Amino acid sequence: MSEESSFDSIERRISSLERVVCGNSIPDPENKSIEALMNVQNRLQSAVTGREKITSLFSKLDDLEKYLSPAFRENLSLTEPAKLNLVLLEENRIRNAVDCLQTVKDLVQYLDSEHIKAVPSLCPKLYEVSQAQLKLQEDAAELSEETRQLIANYDNLIMSLSKQFILWDSMLTEIEKGKLTKKK
Protein backbone atom coordinates (compact mmCIF):
# COMPACT_ATOMS: atom_id res chain seq x y z
CA MET A 1 0.00 0.00 0.00
CA SER A 2 2.85 2.37 0.77
CA GLU A 3 4.36 1.77 -2.68
CA GLU A 4 1.03 2.66 -4.22
CA SER A 5 0.72 5.90 -2.23
CA SER A 6 4.35 6.88 -2.88
CA PHE A 7 3.82 6.20 -6.58
CA ASP A 8 0.69 8.40 -6.55
CA SER A 9 2.62 11.07 -4.69
CA ILE A 10 5.42 10.98 -7.26
CA GLU A 11 2.87 11.06 -10.09
CA ARG A 12 1.22 14.18 -8.56
CA ARG A 13 4.57 15.88 -8.14
CA ILE A 14 5.53 15.14 -11.74
CA SER A 15 2.21 16.45 -13.04
CA SER A 16 2.55 19.64 -10.97
CA LEU A 17 6.10 20.04 -12.25
CA GLU A 18 4.86 19.61 -15.82
CA ARG A 19 2.19 22.27 -15.17
CA VAL A 20 4.86 24.64 -13.88
CA VAL A 21 7.21 23.96 -16.79
CA CYS A 22 4.64 23.70 -19.57
CA GLY A 23 2.04 26.05 -18.16
CA ASN A 24 -1.63 25.26 -17.92
CA SER A 25 -1.76 24.08 -21.49
CA ILE A 26 -2.71 20.52 -22.27
CA PRO A 27 0.37 18.33 -21.82
CA ASP A 28 1.78 17.22 -25.12
CA PRO A 29 2.09 13.43 -25.31
CA GLU A 30 5.23 14.00 -27.32
CA ASN A 31 6.69 15.95 -24.39
CA LYS A 32 9.03 13.49 -22.81
CA SER A 33 9.87 15.29 -19.58
CA ILE A 34 10.56 12.13 -17.65
CA GLU A 35 12.86 10.74 -20.32
CA ALA A 36 14.71 14.06 -20.50
CA LEU A 37 15.10 14.12 -16.72
CA MET A 38 16.30 10.52 -16.73
CA ASN A 39 18.76 11.34 -19.51
CA VAL A 40 20.15 14.26 -17.50
CA GLN A 41 20.35 12.10 -14.38
CA ASN A 42 22.18 9.35 -16.30
CA ARG A 43 24.65 11.87 -17.73
CA LEU A 44 25.32 13.28 -14.28
CA GLN A 45 25.76 9.80 -12.87
CA SER A 46 28.23 8.85 -15.62
CA ALA A 47 30.14 12.11 -15.14
CA VAL A 48 30.43 11.51 -11.40
CA THR A 49 31.36 7.84 -11.61
CA GLY A 50 35.02 7.31 -10.86
CA ARG A 51 35.62 10.76 -9.43
CA GLU A 52 36.11 10.44 -5.71
CA LYS A 53 36.19 14.15 -4.93
CA ILE A 54 32.81 14.78 -6.54
CA THR A 55 31.20 11.79 -4.86
CA SER A 56 32.57 12.85 -1.48
CA LEU A 57 31.24 16.36 -2.16
CA PHE A 58 27.79 14.96 -2.97
CA SER A 59 27.87 12.96 0.25
CA LYS A 60 28.61 16.15 2.20
CA LEU A 61 25.81 18.17 0.58
CA ASP A 62 23.25 16.95 3.11
CA ASP A 63 25.44 18.13 5.98
CA LEU A 64 26.02 21.46 4.26
CA GLU A 65 22.29 22.01 3.73
CA LYS A 66 21.68 21.11 7.37
CA TYR A 67 24.26 23.65 8.63
CA LEU A 68 23.07 26.40 6.28
CA SER A 69 19.39 26.05 7.12
CA PRO A 70 17.91 28.65 9.47
CA ALA A 71 16.41 25.87 11.56
CA PHE A 72 19.90 24.62 12.49
CA ARG A 73 20.68 27.83 14.35
CA GLU A 74 17.41 27.57 16.22
CA ASN A 75 18.22 23.99 17.23
CA LEU A 76 21.47 25.08 18.80
CA SER A 77 20.78 26.13 22.31
CA LEU A 78 23.03 27.78 24.81
CA THR A 79 23.51 26.42 28.25
CA GLU A 80 22.06 28.37 31.15
CA PRO A 81 25.49 29.64 32.31
CA ALA A 82 26.27 30.81 28.76
CA LYS A 83 22.95 32.66 28.59
CA LEU A 84 23.66 34.22 31.99
CA ASN A 85 27.10 35.36 30.81
CA LEU A 86 25.58 36.94 27.70
CA VAL A 87 23.07 38.86 29.79
CA LEU A 88 25.78 39.97 32.22
CA LEU A 89 28.00 41.10 29.36
CA GLU A 90 25.16 43.19 27.94
CA GLU A 91 24.05 44.51 31.34
CA ASN A 92 25.27 48.08 30.79
CA ARG A 93 23.66 48.26 27.35
CA ILE A 94 20.40 46.91 28.73
CA ARG A 95 20.45 49.42 31.60
CA ASN A 96 21.14 52.28 29.14
CA ALA A 97 18.21 51.14 26.99
CA VAL A 98 15.95 51.02 30.05
CA ASP A 99 17.05 54.53 31.07
CA CYS A 100 16.41 55.86 27.56
CA LEU A 101 12.99 54.24 27.46
CA GLN A 102 12.17 55.72 30.85
CA THR A 103 13.20 59.16 29.58
CA VAL A 104 10.95 58.75 26.55
CA LYS A 105 8.12 57.64 28.79
CA ASP A 106 8.64 60.72 30.99
CA LEU A 107 8.74 63.08 28.01
CA VAL A 108 5.74 61.66 26.19
CA GLN A 109 3.48 63.87 28.32
CA TYR A 110 5.01 66.92 26.61
CA LEU A 111 4.27 65.52 23.19
CA ASP A 112 0.67 64.93 24.19
CA SER A 113 0.26 68.33 25.83
CA GLU A 114 -2.63 70.64 25.03
CA HIS A 115 -0.25 73.25 23.61
CA ILE A 116 0.93 70.93 20.87
CA LYS A 117 -2.55 69.60 20.20
CA ALA A 118 -3.90 73.16 19.92
CA VAL A 119 -1.36 74.11 17.25
CA PRO A 120 -2.69 73.73 13.72
CA SER A 121 -1.00 71.18 11.57
CA LEU A 122 2.66 72.00 11.26
CA CYS A 123 3.28 69.55 8.44
CA PRO A 124 3.20 72.13 5.61
CA LYS A 125 5.57 74.43 7.52
CA LEU A 126 7.81 71.51 8.42
CA TYR A 127 7.85 70.48 4.77
CA GLU A 128 8.85 74.01 3.73
CA VAL A 129 11.62 74.10 6.34
CA SER A 130 12.92 70.70 5.27
CA GLN A 131 12.90 71.79 1.61
CA ALA A 132 14.80 74.95 2.51
CA GLN A 133 17.29 72.91 4.51
CA LEU A 134 17.83 70.53 1.57
CA LYS A 135 18.37 73.50 -0.75
CA LEU A 136 20.91 74.94 1.69
CA GLN A 137 22.70 71.58 1.81
CA GLU A 138 22.88 71.50 -1.99
CA ASP A 139 24.15 75.08 -2.09
CA ALA A 140 26.77 74.28 0.55
CA ALA A 141 27.91 71.25 -1.47
CA GLU A 142 28.21 73.40 -4.61
CA LEU A 143 30.11 76.07 -2.69
CA SER A 144 32.46 73.44 -1.26
CA GLU A 145 33.14 72.07 -4.74
CA GLU A 146 33.77 75.57 -6.13
CA THR A 147 36.11 76.28 -3.21
CA ARG A 148 38.04 73.05 -3.87
CA GLN A 149 38.35 74.01 -7.53
CA LEU A 150 39.57 77.52 -6.64
CA ILE A 151 42.13 76.08 -4.21
CA ALA A 152 43.34 73.66 -6.90
CA ASN A 153 43.66 76.54 -9.39
CA TYR A 154 45.49 78.66 -6.79
CA ASP A 155 47.83 75.76 -6.08
CA ASN A 156 48.56 75.31 -9.79
CA LEU A 157 49.21 79.06 -10.19
CA ILE A 158 51.59 79.13 -7.21
CA MET A 159 53.39 76.06 -8.56
CA SER A 160 53.77 77.69 -11.99
CA LEU A 161 55.02 80.94 -10.46
CA SER A 162 57.49 79.05 -8.28
CA LYS A 163 58.87 77.23 -11.32
CA GLN A 164 59.12 80.51 -13.22
CA PHE A 165 60.94 82.21 -10.32
CA ILE A 166 63.34 79.27 -10.07
CA LEU A 167 64.01 79.53 -13.81
CA TRP A 168 64.59 83.30 -13.58
CA ASP A 169 66.83 82.81 -10.55
CA SER A 170 68.98 80.31 -12.41
CA MET A 171 69.15 82.59 -15.46
CA LEU A 172 70.09 85.58 -13.28
CA THR A 173 72.76 83.49 -11.55
CA GLU A 174 74.23 82.51 -14.91
CA ILE A 175 74.24 86.15 -16.07
CA GLU A 176 75.92 87.26 -12.84
CA LYS A 177 78.52 84.51 -13.20
CA GLY A 178 79.17 85.68 -16.77
CA LYS A 179 79.68 89.32 -15.69
CA LEU A 180 82.02 88.25 -12.87
CA THR A 181 84.16 86.26 -15.30
CA LYS A 182 84.33 89.24 -17.73
CA LYS A 183 85.50 91.59 -14.98
CA LYS A 184 88.30 89.24 -13.95
UniProtKB/TrEMBL annotation:
It comes from the Eukaryota. GO terms for biological process: cytoskeleton-dependent cytokinesis. One of its GO terms (cellular component) is dynactin complex. InterPro entries: DCTN3. This is Dynactin subunit 3. It comes from Oedothorax gibbosus. The lineage of its organism: Eukaryota, Metazoa, Ecdysozoa, Arthropoda, Chelicerata.
